[in-house]
């Protein structure tokens, strides 16, 4: 049996976005009877470790030096390797590639020194960018290559979603497996500040965040439930009239699900993707987290619009559903296995 290794970032500060999109790719690779093994520090985020283990995938601790990668990948008898990292030194990629091992690297705009046989940038309008590629590399770019997990695909509506007419809108908010930038409490405050009715569920990965969210003062006809990380994410999104999340890898999952998505740009490297997503008019922009932290009313106009206009929520949901077809991981796997 062929064996593919996945070397990706994960951690309390880095979050789980790299793991989540790599798991989407891994599910498709496994479906084609190819073994998958992860090389990452999944133990630092127990929820991420559980997600990997639930798919029967073995995990080895991360290594960092070029020679460590070459040695480990040889010991593991890998037939190809996938990289998805912001933290690896650029010297790792050419060392592995020079060893003769086929490589695929997942990137977001800036290649960050990634040198691989295939480079995948699954971001919106990435096909419009023309970065200087390493010699002999090919690039797969844009939403046709968005990698979506089984959990999401199983809940993708077969047809564009219809308008929902709940008298009190249901809101679901989550910010990755760790909410590394502490967005949850500020979004809860922004919702409360609208003064409008809602029933919200906010995911809080830690007790400190949970306590701050639960302490938000609500107004009449507003309710807020705080939960921990859930493996029922897609089902929760499907039940919501409005889903609020960080702009990032989860954006494409929301669009694939036909969710009405309200996006918060939580970190500078998301600005381009955030602006492009909002410009499609398939997602609504709630602004920068830094602005919310300064003044929670900065998102007031957009939130009021989303909470009171079911027709516009429906239009956003249908536009997103049409943008992301859920087959990107098949196309990426074709390219990866074509290297072996």
Topology, pairings included?
Layout lengths: L2 E6 L8 H15 L3 E5 L6 H9 L3 E3 L5 H10 L4 E5 L7 H7 L4 E4 L11 E4 L16 E4 L8 H6 L14 E5 L9 H10 L4 E6 L3 H8 L7 E6 L5 H7 L2 E5 L2 H9 L3 E5 L5 H9 L4 E5 H6 L5 H9 L1 H14 L4 H11 L2
Parallel strand pairs: 1-2, 1-4, 2-3, 4-5, 5-6, 6-7, 8-9, 8-11, 9-10, 11-12, 12-13
Helix pairs in contact: 1-14, 3-4, 6-7, 9-13
CATH architecture assignment of the largest domain = 3-Layer(aba) Sandwich
User: Briefly, what CATH class of the largest domain?
Assistant: Alpha Beta
- Given helix and strand content, the structural type is alpha/beta
3D shape: globular
Rg of Cα set? 20 Å
Number of strands: 13
- At CATH level 3, the topology of the largest domain is Rossmann fold
Spatially, the strands of the biggest sheet line up as 3-2-1-4-5-6-7
Q: Residue ranges: pLDDT <50 for 5 or more in a row? A: none
Q: Quaternary status of these chains?
A: single chain
Count of runs of 4 or more consecutive helical residues: 14
Helix content: 25-40%
The fourth-level CATH homologous superfamily of the largest domain is Glycogen Phosphorylase B
Fraction of residues in β-strands: 15-25%
* Biggest beta-sheet profile: 7 strands, parallel
Mean pLDDT: 94
Overall number of structural domains: 2
């Amino acid at each position: 049996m062929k064996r593919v290794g996945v070397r990706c970032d994960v951690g309390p500060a880095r979050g789980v976005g790299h793991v989540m999109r790599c798991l989407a790719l891994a599910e498709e690779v496994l479906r084609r009877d190819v073994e998958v093994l992860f090389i990452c520090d999944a133990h630092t985020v127990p929820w991420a470790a559980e997600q990997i283990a639930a798919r029967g995938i073995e995990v080895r601790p991360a290594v960092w030096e070029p020679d460590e990668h070459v040695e480990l990948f040889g010991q593991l008898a890998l037939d190809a390797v996938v990289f998805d990292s912001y933290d690896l030194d650029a010297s790792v990629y050419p060392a592995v590639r020079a060893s003769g091992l086929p490589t695929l690297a997942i990137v977001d705009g800036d290649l960050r020194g990634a040198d691989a046989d295939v480079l995948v940038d699954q971001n919106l309008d990435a096909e419009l960018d023309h970065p200087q590629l390493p010699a002999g590399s090919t690039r797969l770019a844009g939403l046709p290559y968005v990698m979506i997990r089984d959990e999401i695909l199983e809940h993708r509506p077969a047809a564009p979603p219809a308008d929902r007419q709940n008298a009190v809108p249901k809101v679901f908010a989550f910010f990755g497996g760790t909410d590394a930038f502490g967005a949850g409490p500020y979004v809860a405050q922004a919702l409360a500040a609208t003064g409008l009715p809602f029933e919200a569920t906010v995911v809080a990965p830690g007790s400190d965040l949970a306590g701050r969210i639960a302490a938000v003062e609500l107004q009449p006809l507003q309710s807020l439930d705080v939960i921990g990380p859930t493996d029922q994410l897609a089902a929760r999104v499907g039940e919501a009239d409005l889903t609020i999340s960080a702009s990032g890898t989860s954006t494409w999952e929301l669009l694939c699900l036909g969710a009405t998505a309200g996006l918060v740009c939580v970190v500078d490297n998301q600005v381009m993707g955030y602006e492009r997503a909002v410009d499609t008019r398939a997602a609504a922009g709630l602004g920068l987290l830094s602005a919310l932290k300064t003044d929670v009313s900065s998102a007031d106009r957009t939130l009021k619009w989303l909470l009171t206009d079911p027709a516009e929520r429906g239009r956003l949901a249908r536009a997103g559903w049409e943008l992301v077809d859920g087959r990107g991981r098949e196309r990426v796997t074709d390219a990866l296995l074509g290297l072996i």
